[in-house]
Amino acid sequence: MRRRESNNRSSNSGISTMSHHTRFQDADEIIEDAAVSSNHDDSMCELDGAVDKAVEGSAPEPSMVFTGSHDKTSADYYFDSYSHFGIHEEMLKDTVRTKTYQNVIYQNKFLFKNKVVLDVGAGTGILSLFCAKAGAEHVYAVECSDMADMAKEIVETNGYSNVITVLKGKIEEIELPLAKVDIIISEWMGYFLLFENMLNTVLYARDKWLVDDGVVLPDKASLFLTAIEDADYKEDKIEFWNNVYGFDMNCIKKQAIMEPLVDTVDKNQIVTNCHLLKTMDISKMVPGDASFTAPFKLVAERDDYIHALVAYFDVSFTRCHKLMGFSTGPRSRATHWKQTVLYLEDVLTICEGEAIVGSMTVAQNKKNPRDVDIMLKYSLNGQRCVVSRVQYYKMR
Ligand SMILES: C[S@@+](CC[C@H](N)C(=O)[O-])C[C@H]1O[C@@H](n2cnc3c(N)ncnc32)[C@H](O)[C@@H]1O
């Protein structure tokens, strides 16, 4: 999965609405010849091994090659998606995200006055520009993709070359022309908070360059879990593979259910409370804290079916005059992070007051540290449904 790509429920079906002049037989006129039964057992697997095995079976990404005057091929963009302006456009237009950072900086100028700032993963340089405008003494904007060249030009065009220095390179490899900075600012959050693992880059920068009483912005991130009714979409995305034009494609269903889906969830689908799984203190945590096991208890607020658990995160800036931040939850204004949907193998029938209890284990994938492995253990001991299961997922 490429980060921050748009993949709405309504738009990812790939069905064209274009009309054609030729009159073909309507799709609905084709009569199905047989129904396929789907009584295969879904086998359990180990967190690392089976997840990777499933991935190995998948087809490689086709790479389209342009010849001629183009500077970059799609393969270049695949490996370096932040070089393309499109991904930055999507982030900048996420006003929940960008305006929160702007408000944090402009409304808390006392934090920045005469301070040296390090912007970790500066992209277009937007956060550095906010900091410079708020009165920072100097800002070092570090960006590893080719967008650094644009950031340099943007800084010059806007007359901030004397305050902002753009450094092109990886945080882990660049040299800063000074020993310490007062503030580290970064927008590092991935889908499911931890996908892409940029948090480790921020922690690396903090440990190397931040003064002892320095400020990290944002400094708190919390991961939440809730449960939803999602019959229609589970049918469309998962059960679909049971019978594809009369053929059993259950082997793909097993892969599909292991891939968390990044999508927006309607707040009316929420059946239980929202449980705080984990809060990370970015100013104090160590990289290992991003891998954890956390228990949860989701209590039904009405009688309903449950098809999936949904994860989302909040971030906060606790060093401001007043607490500031934003939520990516289904009850808040939508962001480009949407929510992360983990489909359950079982459909749970739950009555008001009953609880799904379990734990979620989150870990960096050993082969590819940018991927996230998730193990979900859950059980329900209800009037209408008794179930206990372990499921494995991989964000990739
Ligand atoms: C989520 S974007 C945020 C961009 C910008 N700060 C903003 O708020 O619009 C993260 C940026 O960090 C850069 N990045 C990721 N890892 C990095 C690293 N190790 N060193 C330097 N830049 C990195 C990416 O290329 C990307 O442009």
From TrEMBL:
Stretches for region Disordered: 1-22
InterPro entries assigned to the protein according to its UniProt record, in alphabetical order: Arg_MeTrfase, PRMT_dom, SAM-dependent_MTases_sf
Subcellular location: Nucleus
Keywords attached to this entry: Methyltransferase, Nucleus, S-adenosyl-L-methionine, Transferase
Main location: nucleus
GO BP term (any one): methylation
PROSITE patterns associated with the record: SAM_MT_PRMT
GO molecular function: histone methyltransferase activity; protein-arginine N-methyltransferase activity
Protein's UniProt keywords contain Signal: no
Start and end residues of each Protein arginine N-methyltransferase domain: 219-383
Any single Gene Ontology cellular-component annotation: nucleus
Designated name of the protein: Protein arginine N-methyltransferase domain-containing protein
Lineage, highest ranks first: Eukaryota, Viridiplantae, Streptophyta, Embryophyta, Tracheophyta
